[in-house]
Write a structure and sequence with these properties.
Strand content: 25-35%
Radius of gyration: 21 Å
CATH architecture of the largest domain: 3-Layer(bba) Sandwich
Distance between the termini: 15 Å
CATH superfamily of the largest domain: FAD/NAD(P)-binding domain
Number of helices: 6
Bound molecules: flavin-adenine dinucleotide
Mean pLDDT: 94
Number of strands: 19
Helix content: 10-25%
């Protein structure tokens, strides 16, 4: 039987691992992808204390190495469910079943997908979720960006410095006036406001995108890549047997990160909170791990 299972190795999970190990608790971190979470898709971070600027991958690596040095164990498997019986939790991954005394859910959030014809087919074959990671691959070529928020506009600006042409497809524009103005100043960015993608097509890789405004205009635009910037979504249905989620899918937990189930904490972007950032995720990890460690140590004594 393990003592603490942490689900997710983003800033929240990695910080939780450091705090729980330093409290003398046995820690297993289950990570379905790459350690670092959203950090690995972030180019430069300018608001994490102690760094004027730091690359996302570098901060992720530092956090991971610190957790590993503290003695946390890592299991690269996707968690598919968590259940509880008589105070013991069963964490099921896609490969095995693990029993433990306490769980910290730190599974963050995922990027929203486009969901039009061809969007599944070309995932990873020209459809990207990270302009700063993949932009260089399309240097000197035309690309599309899908989304209407600040991230989409920032991606378009970033790509306009690399690509010959950026087609920005925004069903509705929610980006700040400053971002919109900056985009309008760029000669090689065209904003298609009110348009949404109807098809992404190609051969081995993406060669074009079809967009429509649902009224009379359908456009077919040759592009080498489609960058998706539609925001985040949560995948918390798998924890429905141990936590309650709000209407937006966030796990209901307050500043102490405790959920309705004794022995389960939720940390980072996955929980209800006003600010989803690296520093607040790390703070949650510390809070959740301190409470979970005290809970485990008390259980040991029984
Ligand atoms: C493009 C971009 C730029 C950003 N820039 C900044 C910035 O400059 N400054 C800032 O403070 N914040 C920034 N953020 C936000 C910040 O990255 C997040 O708030 C932070 O990463 C949240 O940390 P987390 O640990 O809660 O979740 P995440 O970072 O999302 O990590 C969650 C981890 O859990 C894993 N996971 C998910 N489900 C499962 C499962 N079922 N089983 C096992 N593992 C699972 C995921 O693979 C992931 O590794 C940015 C985000 C993005 C997307």
């Amino acid at each position: 039987m393990r003592e603490l299972v942490i689900i997710g190795a983003g800033p929240a999970g990695l910080t939780a691992a450091v705090y729980a190990r330093r409290a003398g608790v046995d820690v297993l971190v289950c990570e379905g992808g790459m350690y670092g979470g959203q950090l690995v898709n972030t180019e430069t971070i300018k608001n994490y204390p102690s760094y004027k600027t730091v690359e996302g991958w570098e901060l992720a690596r530092n956090m991971y190495l610190q957790a590993e040095e503290c003695g946390a164990e890592f299991l690269y498997e996707n968690v598919i469910s968590v259940t509880e019986k008589d105070g013991v939790f069963t964490v099921t991954t896609d490969k095995q079943v693990i029993e433990c005394l306490a769980v910290i859910i730190a599974n963050g959030s995922k990027r929203k997908r486009i969901g039009c014809k061809g969007s599944d087919r070309y995932e990873g074959l020209g459809i990207s979720y990270c302009a700063s990671c993949d932009g260089q691959l399309y240097k000197g070529q035309p690309v599309a960006v899908v989304g209407g928020g600040d991230n989409a506009f920032e991606d378009a600006l970033y790509l306009s410095a690399l690509c010959t042409k950026v087609h920005l497809c925004a069903k509705s524009v929610t980006a700040s006036e400053e971002s919109v103005e900056a985009v309008k100043q760029k000669e090689n960015i065209t904003l298609y406001e009110g348009f949404y993608p109807t098809e992404i097509y190609g051969e081995m890789r993406v060669t074009g995108i079809k967009i429509s405004d649902k009224k009379e205009t359908d456009l077919d635009i040759p592009v080498a890549a489609v960058f998706t910037a539609l925001g985040q979504t949560r995948d918390n249905a798998i924890f429905a047997r141990v936590v309650v989620v709000d209407d937006s899918g966030y796990i209901i937990a307050a500043e102490d990160c405790a959920t309705d189930t004794k022995g389960v904490w939720a940390a980072g972007d996955t929980r209800t909170k006003p600010l989803r950032q690296i520093v607040t995720a790390a703070s949650d990890g510390a809070t959740a791990a301190t409470a979970a460690s005290a809970y485990i140590i008390k259980k040991r004594k029984k």
